[in-house]
Amino acid sequence: MSERKDITRRRVIKSGAAAAAAAGATPYFFTRAFADGHGYMNAPKGDTVTFGFNVPQTGAYADEGADELRAYEMAVEHINAGGGGMLDTFSSKALKGGVNGKTVKFVTGDTQTKSDAARASAKRMIENDGAIMITGGSSSGVAIAVQGLCQEAGVIFMSGLTHSNDTTGKDKRANGFRHFFNTEMTGAALGPVLNNNYGKDRKVYHLTADYTWGYSQEGSMIKYTQPYGWETVAAVKTPVGAGDFSQFITPVLSSGADTLVLNHYGKDMVNSLTQAVQFGLRDKQVNGKDFTIVVPLYSRLMAQGAGANVKGIFGSTNWHWSLQDEGSKAFVKAFGTKYGFPPSQAAHTTYCQALLYADACQRAGTFKPSEVGAALEGFKFDGLGNGPTEYRAEDHQCFKDVLVVKGKENPTSKFDVLEVVEVTPRAKVEYAPSLLGGELGPYNNG
Amino acid sequence: MDAIFLQVLNGLDKGGAYALIALGLTLVFGTLGVVNFAHGALFMLGAFCAVALQRMFSVSYERINEDKQDFLGNPLKEQISYMVDWVGEDAAAFLQDYSVPLSIILAALFMAIVGIVMERGLIKHFYKRPHADQILVTFGLAIVIQELVRHYFGANPIPQAAPQVVSGAANVGSWVGLGENVIYPWWRLVYFVFSAIIIFGVFAFLQFTTFGMVVRAGMQDRETVGLLGINIEQRFTVVFGLAAVVAGVAGAMYTPVLPPDYHMGMDFLVLSFVVVVVGGMGSLGGAVLAGFLLGILQSFASMQAVQELLPGISQIIIYLVAVIVLLTLPRGLMGRKGVMED
Amino acid sequence: MQNKTALKDITLFVGFAAVVLCLPIILEPIGANYPDLLQKIAIFGIFAIGFNILFGLTGYLSFGHAAFIGVGSYMTLWSFKLLTMNVVPAILFSVILAGLFAYLIGYVSLRRSGIYFSILTLAFAQMCYSLAYSVLTPITNGETGLQTRAIRTNPETSLLDADLRIIDQAFGVLENGVPTTNFFGMAMSGYTGFYFCAVLLIICFFIAQRLTRSNFGMMLKAIKSNQNRLNYTGIHTRPYLIAAFVISGMYAGLAGSLMAATDPIAGAERMQWTASGEVVLMTILGGVGTLVGPVLGAGLIKYAEQKVSSWNEGILESFFSFLPETLQHLMTNIGSLFVGEGWHTTLGLMFMIIVIFLPGGIMEGIQRITNIFRRKSNKDAKGASAPQPAE
Predict the structure, then answer these.
(1) If I label A106, which of A50, A389, C4, C220 is the partner at 20 to 30 A Cα–Cα?
(2) Residues on chain A touching C267 (C-beta within 8 angstroms)
(3) A416–C contact, CB cutoff 8 A
(4) Which of B68, B159, B188 sits opposite A305 (nearest CB)?
(5) Separation between Cα atoms, residue C214 and residue C209, nearest integer Å
(6) What residue numbers bound the domain in which B209 lies?
């Protein structure tokens, strides 16, 4: 017994010594990792600069992630070549091959559409691969998580596909920038179009994905349809990934509602829409009106999964390949020639983000986050497929026209799922920066 | 009244699907003593048999049509299906339309092969291994199958339409004397009948054939059956194949309800385990009963009145029921003593 | 005999501690020397060691341990938000709260055994996850996850979006923006964070080792080999089981707390069944019932998740650049099935191969290799020493 005690004591001493050794070793590693004397995090050495592309490569959004990655690769090609694709139509002509005299390289990571995994892979790119900027993603939870991380680490975050208000609302950060639109703009753009097409005084049933984005989308749909006398009969929360939505759809039949709004995205949207159509909702007449379904946020890639069920259903999107402005045409041509199919809105927004970041660095003459950010704030540009656009300084949100689309009745190919119904001008979707709350805080240069 | 009637229908429909998925799982548990985490992947493979058949029916060659343009402004390459050339336009259209029900044949054949290969090649080496090892190896296999499917079919859901005649909704209300609002999709009714037939088929097979008798005896007492000189190994292979086929056809028929994607197996995995365990390990009747019970309760928990009373209940009802059942009935609804308790 | 075991234990412990503390140097050649991965390996090592106390010793397979990770993470974040950015109170509260949760869940779940126990724990964890994701949003901030914020200036702001930090404020700590977590002034990010976790991992390893060797550990192993016999001899096994469950729950709570301490965010997905499954896989992969195995398994899975997933086609192409071009493309195409976006395939194959060929996990592989060497040296000594009895 005494022997045992002795061992225990020795062990404790040993581990204490080990801890002391650890503490002694710390300063060396610490200094090596962070204070490399350039004044900001991961300042590029040599003649290359590294971008970090953090996209979902596994999980439900893997195809969107793959499309984002394709767009990024093409963006890097164009930036290094100083031309090609939308870089030729972009209003800013600062980029002439490379950025600040350096060639752009990139590293990739898998977000798995999970906040933890996304932050871990962003950290790897920052800590291990020396990424100067992180961009990408296909959901708001991930975007907000990675944005917070980039703020702490002191690099710029150019978010990918994220539609929740919070990204540039109450969770906005100085180091984070968003090109994609949000639920507020969707509501503002859809409201009038729905009224024009379906008339006043409708009774609306909401099925809402039970998480932050869903609540925000539902709120904005209610807010912007109310002025037209649209009345909410019920707003029911559905579990994310429910698969079978039948138990949520049958009550719609007897509720007296004549409009169903599906505040779902991705797989949930595909499933709930497919099933709602199967239940014959669209063949019904309620209150003397044709029953209608609305899907506020469309993703063309995902909508393909719902097949013919999307025909004639209204929604909104950030960009669509059928747009006929010079920028969109150049982008579709470059992308289509390289990969053989048209780009998705996810590809478009990430391509723009990469270009905008590179351009801002070139104009700022440095990669230092605070100066790059200053170059982006209030930056007005054109030629990137959405018409005249501005990065608003107050919340780092892009303001541009919003597309209202509907499912095409007679598609000519499997990519030809949506048609643009109306381009809602920027002025109609703009809101005061204070509306969504939050604070940018100071820039962090690491 | 209408609402309740519809929720009962929903519950039955869901229950049929759950029971069908759980059936193969519990069969494998009961007879082979194997925890098969790849069962969800088998369900998914079956669903992709439907996708594959649809693709086969539309294998096509390209013909350049100068009159039309593709998205890049080049002349459109029209896709002409070989089927049209071979059997004529009407027959090809018919095959396309009925590709989901027809895919049952493909799924049954393909899944039988998959099941037998899987059992002979992998599972049989794990009969004597701890459950943890079985879980790890089948989970690994599930991931590999999943990634293969993703490699060929992508990650996004692929729409599968039910045949035109059953694509709409049936006016169930008029059959039972309820209101106009009681309508239900034809395909879901078809699926319900289909699952009932399969379930009864499996029961009849086990109940009324010599083969089934031996298997049932094996479920009760494997060693004795082995001592009687019966080649139980061969029967195990057949049982595993049968489980795979049931999972496969269930998946293929489910595609019009739920557009299949490579991950759907994992989504159903936990649920099917809960169904099996609530029913009682290794009990076929229990699995079916639990499937219907959970289906119906899930439907009712989603009603707005219930949700207002107990917010969040629709999210957790399945697990809550599982906890209550397992705490009151130690071996689930119809489980036997000694199965999977160590 | 006891002497020998004790000596072996000390060697194992010292060796383990040395390896953990030298991880940055050891992992440098495989490109894994960066703070986040090192932290994750240490944290999941703690999680897996704790899980093994339950699963490895008693054989009770819990599928709900992720719930305790979540509880630990949320508690830690709330401690950061309300009290102080110092990690000490956060860790203490988290471990205690996780222990309480573990007691409640364990008390109920341990009424059943085998797969029924597994499903009960799974059910509880999934309920925690679903509720945290949806209706408990006022506490968990739902999908977005709980994060630390700047000090609240407007009392109208919800506590989810602004912090109080009563203790820090009382001490007059100045904050610019959102402060970082610290251990009495040492930042918890970067390598300091790793060494903090590493020291805790070593302490946890020590406790687990002592537990395994204690009477309590013997009792747990007895439960695994034959619970009925114990019951017949009049021993109540449940208190022991509950104690084991609570201890392993506290380990998980500590791991969750450290996750939030090194990276201040807590999301519901940490509680999902896949997260519970991950620790099961780590333990089996490394070697159930061994002390070092679970940590190895944790390291391997985290490495695959972080590094193998990052080998995109560009990296593959440069890797195969010594080959002629056509062959290079071919190899790149084949390789991309297994790395980059195909990293799950590698993970799946790794599970299968290890469990098929090494039923005891990686530890069995190591054992076999050392046995080969030992046999060789025994042969060299021409049987000078009697072969060691197996344990």
Answers:
(1) A389
(2) 114-116, 141, 145
(3) no
(4) B159
(5) 9
(6) 2-59+92-328
Chain B: nearest CA to C199, how far in angstroms?
A: 30
Give tens-digit pLDDT for C177-204.
778 899 998 888 889 999 999 999 999 9
Q: Nearest Cα to A49, choosing from A57, A59, A41, A39?
A: A41
Q: List, for chain B, all residue ranges whose pLDDT scores fall below the cut of 50.
A: none
Work out the number of other CB atoms within 10 angstroms of the CB of residue A98.
Answer: 18
Chains that touch B (3 or more CB pairs under 8 A): A, C
The CATH number of the domain holding residue B181 is 1.10.3470
User: What is the domain extent for residue A311?
Assistant: 184-317
Q: What is the pLDDT of residues A375-402, one digit of tens each?
A: 999 999 999 999 999 999 999 999 999 9
Distance, in angstroms, between B1 CA and closest chain A CA?
A: 10
B277 touches chain C (CB under 8 A): yes
44-83 in B: which are within 8 Å (CB) of A?
A: 68, 70-72, 76
Count of domains in chain B? 1
C336 lies in some domain: no
What is the DSSP-derived secondary structure letter of residue B30? Answer: H
Q: How many domains, chain C? A: 1
Total of domains in chain A: 2
Using alpha carbons, select from A383, A390, A283, A244 the residue that is nearest to residue A323. Answer: A383
Q: How many helices (H) and strands (E) does chain C have?
A: 18, 4
A414 domain-assigned? no
Residue A14 has pLDDT above 80, yes or no: no
The separation between CA C43 and the C-alpha centre of its own chain, rounded to angstroms, equals: 5
- Does A69 reside within a domain? yes
Q: How far is C357 from chain A (nearest CA, A)?
A: 28
CA distance B300 to A240: 18
CATH of the domain at C210: 1.10.3470
Q: Are residues A189 and A165 in the same domain?
A: no
CB contact under 8 A, A254 and B155: no
